Amino acid sequence: MTTTSPTTPAPALRQGDWVGFVLNRFIWFVLVGTFILFTLAIPNYLAPSNLANILITASVPGVLVIGQTLCLMSRRIDLSAEGTVSLVVVLAAWLMLPYRAMDLAQAGGIGWELSPFIVIPFILAVGAFVGFLNGFMIMRLKMNFFIVTLAMQLVLRGIGFVISEGAIMPGTPRDFNFLGGGRVAGVPVAPVVMFVLYVLFAFIMSRTRFGRQVTAVGANEDAARAAGFSSVRTVIIVYTVSGFMAALAGWMLLGKLEASIPNLGVGLTLDVMAAAVIGGISLKGGEGSLWGALAGVLFLAMINNALNLIDVSPYWVDAVRGLIILVALIIDAQKSRYKRRTVAQPAPARR
Questions:
Q1: Considering Cα of 274, then 277, then 278, then 279, what sign does the dihedral take?
Q2: Domains located in the chain, CATH noted
Q3: Beta-carbon neighbour count of residue 140 at 10 Å?
Q4: Most exposed residue of 5, 105, 217, 244, measured as fewest CB within 10 angstroms of its CB?
Q5: Under a CB-based contact definition with an 8 Å cutoff, are residues 281 and 292 in contact?
Q6: CB of 145 within 8 A of CB of 80?
Q7: How many angstroms separate the CA atoms of 172 and 155, rounded?
Q8: Are 112 and 298 in contact (CB under 8 A)?
Q9: Reduced to 3 states, what is the DSSP secondary structure of residue 114?
Q10: Residue 279 to residue 261: CA distance in whole angstroms
């Protein structure tokens, strides 16, 4: 009897298996088809300014989806990411801005006026530490990942409101804002950084031992341990990366808006989870790709942009997004059933 290593890739599609080919790349067919449809139906959709706006809008959730994808690949979820975004945007403004008493719902910082080059590594370290705490409590203390990350989200958002007293803190320094709102030769920086991160993490997930560990732990944790992989260390690193990416997304978002708002991260979890699921990341763990997740992010950004351009009521946005998620879940379920059936019924041998 033969056994399959937890790092062994999924069975290759049989020659001529066009159903499996389409299911595995469904989001890309949808993305291209939707782009063509919007290009033909909406005037000026291909305008450079509109395309840049789509990419800029996709940048923050795109960075967050990287961390969430790693968590989902390890068969876990990080609900604390939006709380980390809320905290770091408040913390960064609080440390950089001059002191100003609250006036008309606006406030200043603590008065230290720290350099952005001190604040940036600090908030990134805070995000990574939050992620490490999540991973430690989940793997070392054996706590439920859903409850831990949900509670952490509430704690972080609460701390942000305490620091800011619920007020807006405008006027972040130009050097800090460069990542989220800067341009080089007319090209926005945020989308370029997002694409670079996807290239980096796609390489890590496909070509390094750590990437194989994440996939193995998500596919079968017991088998991964039997193969010599440490599920505890792997999951803690995954959550640490997720926290770091959430802090990076917070930096990007604050730089884009140039003003700290305590509830800035609210609702990002829904966008991130939706993009990951639409992009083919399995909620059962161990299956999916970062490029699919990126396609999911771009697809949602295109949908939101198109709805705004044709002046659809904002009340319909969530309804459309929810419908898209349901369709993605149905496709994911059918893909799993098809793969099980295909593996169970191998192609007949040639005579």
A1: positive
A2: 26-342 (1.10.3470)
A3: 11
A4: 105
A5: yes
A6: no
A7: 25
A8: no
A9: coil
A10: 30
d(CA 281, CA 273): 9
Angle between the 174-181 and 116-139 helix axes, to the nearest 10 degrees?
60
Q: List pLDDT tens digits, range 130-186.
A: 999 999 999 999 999 999 999 999 999 999 999 988 888 888 999 999 999 999 988
Helix (H) or strand (E) holding 337: helix 315-344
Name the token pair of 36: 């063509």
pLDDT in tens, 181-218: 999 988 999 999 999 999 999 999 999 999 999 999 99
Helix, coil or strand: residue 170? strand
- Helix ranges (DSSP H) in 140-188: 145-164, 174-181
Nearest-angstrom CA–CA distance, 152 and 171? 28
The first and second tokens of residue 271, run together, are: 């966008």
Q: Are 237 and 133 in contact (CB under 8 A)?
A: no
Separation of alpha carbons 53 and 301, rounded Å: 9
Tokens of 214: 């994440």
82 neighbors 71 (Cβ within 8 angstroms): no
Residue 98 has which token pair?
A: 């001059």
Q: Are 271 and 68 in contact (CB under 8 A)?
A: no
Secondary structure (3-state) at 285 = coil
pLDDT (tens digit, 9 = 90+) per residue, 26-45? 888 889 999 999 999 998 89
Q: Residue 165 region, left (φ>0) first, then alpha (ψ -120 to 50), else beta?
A: left
What does residue 260 show for φ and ψ, rounded to 5 degrees? -85, 130
d(CA 6, CA 220): 7
- Picking from 34, 309, 65, 49, the residue whose alpha carbon sits closest to that of residue 317 is 309
Closest CA to 10 of 350, 335, 349: 335
Residues 6+ apart with CB under 8 A from 316: 307
| CA 346 – CA 12 distance, rounded (Å) | 11
Residue 220 phi, psi (nearest 5): -165, 100
